Amino acid sequence: MGLKGFVEGGIASIVAGASTHPLDLIKVRMQLQGESHLPNPSLQVCRPALAGNVSISQAVSQPRVGPVSIGVRIVQSEGVAALFSGVSATILRQTLYSTTRMGLYDILKNKWTDKETGNLPLTSKIVAGLIAGGVGAAVGNPADVAMVRMQADGRLPIDQRRNYKSVIDALGQMTKQEGVGSLWRGSALTVNRAMIVTASQLATYDQVKEMIIEKRVMVDGIGTHVTASFAAGFVAAVASNPIDVIKTRVMNMKAGPGAEPPYAGALDCAVKTVRAEGPMALYKGFIPTISRQGPFTVVLFVTLEQVRKLLKDF
């Protein structure tokens, strides 16, 4: 039963991650807007052909653009395929991180559920999510770093792009150029975020699903699964966005040999971000985050429920 939970969670996570990857990429680009250490901030929002005609002062004063505008500009300047930049890293991340967290959560949930009543308190669900998310994030951090860098590469000046060919190439270059430790850059943030996301997402889904069925609002079917999924996605997005912004910036920072990195760590990144851009900068990319969390969570749990039906006899 334990192995089965890992397989079911892994299949559902890979399907959900790959299908919502463009939304995740747009979210990452939005979260990186406004970083002051970039050599030419205009490149964050302008097409390469036009960026040279825009001064830095003009670029800095430009209003922040929304997810639709960013998506359109990515397609215009980098092509449609750019929306799937880093999808190989996403698949590897879901294989490592989500398979681990979903399987471990399932094991803990089954172990802690009262055998007589079949009930599991919300607090126990949250604790199970915290543990499962932390372990999964530690396992999947290298793929997470590679995914963020591959998604963000297109916004850098051409001569500064990393141009990773695949997730394997990304991991290899990072190890060679920055050391093995770079694969776990931002791991504390990744673990914290994963604990919050997993606890809020999985616990909310189970709790809302149980409430809907117990109160006979709907039967245990796709309508219940979709409703509980949307609730879980919203709660997870609100809880995790500030950590996600800091995680993205720390993972994406680039420092040459002997050069001072833009951020000394997560706390330094948070302080500099709030000082330079205000507290609401921690909720940059929230619209694409919720736009991605909603579909991702729905696809994740609807697929999970269907996979469980298919594998119920195994």
UniProtKB/TrEMBL annotation:
The domain of life is: Eukaryota
Recorded hits in InterPro entries, A to Z, give: MCP (IPR002067), MCP_dom_sf (IPR023395), MCP_transmembrane (IPR018108), Mito_Metabolite_Transporter (IPR050391)
Please give the chief subcellular localization of this protein.
Answer: membrane
Keywords linked to the UniProt accession: Membrane, Repeat, Transmembrane, Transmembrane helix, Transport
Under Pfam families, the record lists: Mito_carr (PF00153)
Show me the Solcar repeat boundaries: 4-111, 120-211, 220-310
Q: Which PROSITE patterns match?
A: SOLCAR
**Could you list the residue ranges that cross the membrane?**
none
Q: Which family does it belong to?
A: Belongs to the mitochondrial carrier (TC 2.A.29) family.
Name-wise, this protein is Mitochondrial uncoupling protein 5-like
State the organism of origin.
Hibiscus sabdariffa
What is this organism's lineage? Eukaryota, Viridiplantae, Streptophyta, Embryophyta, Tracheophyta
